[in-house]
Amino acid sequence: MARAVSTRRKMFITLFAWGIGFLIFFPILWTFITSFKTEAEAIASPPSFLFFDWTLENYDAVQERSNYFRHFWNSVVISLGSTLLGLAIAIPAAWSMAFVPSRATRNILMWMLSTKMLPAVGVLIPIYLIFRDLGLLDTRFGLVVVLTLINLPIIVWMLFTYFREIPGEILEAARMDGAELRSEILYVLVPMAVPGIASTLLLNVILAWNEAFWTLNLTAANSAPLTAFIASYSSPEGLFYAKLSAASTMAIAPILILGWFSQKQLVRGLTFGAVK
Amino acid sequence: MLTPAVVLLLGWMIIPLSMTVYFSFLRYNLLMPGQEQFIGFLNYKYFLTDPAFFAALQNTLILVGGVLVITVGGGTLLALLLDQPFFGQGIVRILVIAPFFVMPTVSALVWKNMFMNPVNGLFAWIAKLFGAQPIDFFAEIPLLSVIIIVAWQWLPFATLILLTALQSLDSDQLEASEIDGAPPLSRFRHIIVPHLARAMTVVILIQTIFLLSVFAEILVTTNGGPGYATTNITYLVYAQSLLQFDVGGGSAGGIVAVILANIVAIFLMRMIGKNLDV
Fold it and tell me: How far apart are CA A259 and CA A266, in angstroms?
């Protein structure tokens, strides 16, 4: 809104908004600060906010307590793996629905969305038993499969909304020039669709990274990603605030940074185009 | 082209779901393998008449309702604030959105230990500063504590969606009303609220879908307790099937959860369908 606003009013709103923003962000900031304290300092009363001996010992301790980087790697493999697999399945589907819509397209899209509304507990037991019988419990492969399937509707929808914005005439021109279907996708569609695909990838990695129903129920020590690893801190032995903070900081930092780049995609991806 | 996606999703939906339906009619306990037996609707009868079910249903409704009130109310105010011109808008927006990207287990444990702990938590210290008795959050107000944590996680989502909707508001209309001398409050009521109504509905419906399945926050903070004080339907089904190994009863509960979610989903699907120009 390009309207003149008095400087005093603007200053006041600035102060107020920064205050609120700081309050909402504070738990994350506090976790970050606490990760550099000693355990004794972390529970000291009154708490120290900035003036204490900053130490990196917790970051070492977390790795020693259990193999932190194994769980970190599990998170990377599971979130990236399920997203890439999902994209491979969803790109052809979204492409055909966006450019060759049929009477069924609308119904298929809505039906796909409805699978996303299925609560996970409704299928927890069968999935658990199938996984047990196939030896997929506590494997990264098993989790990649499940996360691919639960996020597939979001991937298809997001890609669909992006693909629809690509003008169809360009594809027709390519077809007239004798491009085959495969090269039509590879050389014409993909370059134009890369921004949309990248946004979809970004949002999906975030969702998969933070998924905490299936990861908690289907993994144990072996393939546990960070969500499940952090949950093991819920049974504390002795002093552990600083270590919890260090483990948490490392678990959320990468996705926080990715997340800040994905604000717009978040709205599009999670409202299925219902809010623009 | 469509086939792989459709077949996979169809399989994902139909195979496990029909298995759940099938199990829900069996006496089936993992501790007594080979003794499965068809028992009709008995599991449903037990599940729906269990006092734990009523506690869980009530907790689910309070949890969803409480978080919705906080996030939609707070989100509207925050969106209005962030829509004003001020210095460092982008940075404040980043700060406000951040909690959405924190994984549920981290936010639950950080809040439980570093803020809500009655001895070492920051809230206890603040209470003592004012000479008050610190609250033992998870003993005295367990469900409210879970609501606070979950609301913190979802406030950014509501804010972001409502802010996006607010920014698509035609500023000419606002200016015209201002020139016509409409006071701020009636401008809010007659222009902004109707414009936001649609986005609010979307926020409410989408959040409800996710909030019906809150799980990790309960698992790492209270394990559903004390008693059943923080057990929601999702957690009850989990406990029945994977802690008590009662596959039949758990499956019946799972189907009940599916039906509850479907009631919300129907409304959400209609909203989205209206906006889909295919």
Answer: 9
Quick check: B92 and A216 CB within 8 A? no
Q: Tell me the domain boundaries of chain A.
A: 7-59, 67-271
Mean pLDDT of A202-230: 86
Among A10, A149, A206, the residue with its CB nearest the CB of B8 is A149
Rounded-to-integer distance, Cα A248 and Cα A264, Å: 26
Considering only the beta carbons, identify the residue of A3, A119, A263 that sits closest to B212: A119
- Give dist(CA A92, CA A76) in Å, integer: 25
ipTM score for this prediction: 0.85
Residue of chain A nearest B214, judged by CA positions: A213
CA gap B224, A271 in Å, rounded: 30
Confidence of residue A1 (pLDDT cuts 50, 70, 90): very low
Supply A271's token pair: 């409202």
Look at the block and give the residue holding tokens 């924190």. B102
User: Smallest CA–CA separation between B270 and chain A, in Å?
Assistant: 9
**Whole-Å CA distances, B128 to A45, B122, B145:** 10, 10, 19
Decide if pLDDT at A239 tops 70.
no
CATH of domain B36-274: 1.10.3720.10
By the 10 Å C-beta count (0-12 exposed, 13-18 middle, 19+ buried), A123 is classed as buried
Query: Could you please report the per-residue DSSP string of A43-72?
Result: T-SSPPSS-S----HHHHHHHHHS-HHHHH
What is the mean pLDDT of the segment spanning B32-61? 84
What is the value of pTM for the model shown? 0.86
- Per-residue model confidence as pLDDT tens digits over B206-219: 888 888 889 989 99
Cβ within 8 Å, pair B9-A152? yes
pLDDT digits (tens, 9 = 90+) for B51-110: 888 899 899 999 999 999 999 999 999 999 998 888 888 899 889 999 999 999 999 999
The CATH architecture annotation of domain A67-271 reads Orthogonal Bundle (1.10)
Q: Do A251 and B271 touch (CB under 8 A)?
A: no
